[in-house]
Amino acid sequence: MIESKQIQRHKLVLVVDDHEINRDALGIILEDEYEVIYAENGAQALEQIRTNADRLSIVLLDLMMPVMDGFEVLRRVTADERLRHIPVIVLTAEKNAELRALQLGASDFITKPFDVPEIIIARVARIIELSEGRQLISAAEHDPLTLLYSRNFFFEYANRLFRYSPELRMDAVVLNIEKFHAINAVNGREFGDEVLRVIGDEIHAFLAETQGIASRTEADRFDIYCQQPQDYHAVMNRFQAKVNGISSNVSIHLRMGVKPWQQGVEPVLQFDGARAACNMARGDYQNPVMIYDEDMRRRELLNQRLLNDLRSAVTQKQLAVFYQPKYDIRSDPPRLSSAEALIRWRHPELGMIAPGEFVPLFEGNGHISIVDAFVWHEAARQVALWKARFGVTLPVSVNLSRADVFDPTLVSRLDRLIRDNGLEFKDLKLEVTESAYTEKASDLLEVVRQLRRLGFEIEMDDFGSGYSSLNMLSDMPIDVLKMDMKFVRNIESSETDFRLVKLILDIAKYLRLRVVAEGVETEGQLNLLKDAGCDLVQGYYFSRPLPPEEFEKLLERELTIGGGLAK
Ligand code: C2E
Ligand code: MG
Ligand code: MG
What we know:
By secondary structure, the chain is α/β, with parallel strands linked by helices. It has three domains: about 1-140, Response regulator (Rossmann fold, 3-Layer(aba) Sandwich), CATH 3.40.50.2300; about 150-290, Alpha-Beta Plaits, CATH 3.30.70.270; about 325-560, TIM Barrel, CATH 3.20.20. About 50% of the residues lie in helices and about 20% in strands.
């Protein structure tokens, strides 16, 4: 203990203040622990710093001084290669000066009138410790490409501002480049670096006008902690304009998420919110700025809740499968042909939750496989049960997610499921959404081909919602096309929409694919589809998705008075 104190005594501290009383006060506090030297103004301070550059552990610097003020001292110290490693703590009574000092490169600040001695000693010791460590990793304080702070230092400083200057009301802003990997891959790393540099320069320019600090926290992610309020659409426009100027051949889009200041929310959390907002803006070139608001907060809380509750949903049987009929409209009257199994979640507190609320969420983290496996088992069991009860097989289609298709055990699991329930492969149809076909297509096609060889029928779901073109369809291993609802919605009022539907139907016929029209709600839509040669229809016109006991009544009705199932 004594030894370490002796070592510390050799550490040199420079106290700079034009008021003697302040110098004395700090001297009394620090002289026990350190060797202390003094300066009365900025010019003297610079001289002392230059003379003692190798030994000086820290400078405590007043900002308002005659001859040369503290800001100028800071500026010169940070501009001088030989001096910039020396940490500077700013002494200030003026709240807003702290941020300016941090921007100029100060490490910390002590407010006047001075805090209790223990706090000052602790702060000085901490900064010396930090800076001694930092000299070893000095490269890490700034990102060499943009000269913005690196992540750790950025959050260190942001936390300090948060803690010591709560009145500053800082917003968290995250700036991101759309498809940066692709930009890099196509135009080369050097071009990518140039884009980052241009954005970095513009952030520096922005911060010269606005109080704040900034960092490049990830490859193409910039975090900006700046004083509110700002017109972030205007801020975005200036960044986008700079980026547009880089190349006339490459279009680069930025997106921005903002989590406005909120009492008591720490920077790391605040930036989580800003990043979530930024992710929401992903791909939306029309609205590249997203401000985190109450709705997003509620959405995040709900998502968290759903993620937490999924396990108990399975064990406590809160998940249920509903069935929606598909009718064959080639016969008159239309006949029940099959059904689609659709998941429902009866949450004990949140009530009935539609899949739109949680399917995309669970697709994001792979949990959807748990849901899907449950639905497949339920559906297979149900088909077997109805078969036993009514002596006929009503095929049911189930939805497959991307995560399922890339699970190497998928084929064997589905194979077993069919055998375990005493079914045939054609009794369980598989719906794979169109968008899955467009990403990583070759792997997916191989899996789908295997399933099809086993005897499963494959339906391409939501056809027309993604990017696949009609001519791609010819090599797809599919049996049925499920035309997205958006095509059907306006066929009664829009001639163009109806012609498009007809075109899809003609091409499907040419490729020998059957077509299911989704979302059919009116008789008018039904008749138009029928005339255009559509095979099958699913929609509220016939029935909403029903719980199994109600669907069973529908099935019974169709078998007795409806004249049986479609061939
Ligand atoms: P989808 O597979 O395209 O299912 C059709 C959706 O359209 C269902 O919504 C159905 O209720 C709705 N729908 C049917 N007819 C009509 C109509 O006439 N008008 C309107 N406005 N809507 C109609 P739902 O049940 O909310 O499911 C939404 C989506 O969630 C499904 O779209 C599917 O992508 C997904 N999903 C549902 N269940 C599962 C599941 O078990 N696993 C997976 N991976 N996804 C599922
Ligand atoms: Mg579906
Ligand atoms: Mg669909």
